[in-house]
Specification:
Order of helices and strands: EEH
Shape: elongated
Structural class: alpha+beta
Number of domains: 1
Strand content: 35-45%
Number of helices: 1
Radius of gyration: 13 Å
């Protein structure tokens, strides 16, 4: 949420195997002008899906 670059956000989520062990991760990065009306929470829900 704009930690390193102004107007840039990132959301990530772990990917688990059948044992519940984290085996990878997925993330998305976007410029705030591209999704002005979408909150971080909404984007995080899409990433978790």
């Amino acid at each position: 949420d704009e930690e390193w670059e102004d107007n840039v956000r990132c959301v990530g989520a772990p990917i688990y195997d059948y044992r519940g062990t984290t085996i990878a991760a997925v993330s998305t990065v976007w410029h705030m002008n591209q999704a002005k009306n979408q909150s971080v929470e909404e984007t995080a829900a899409y990433v978790r899906e």
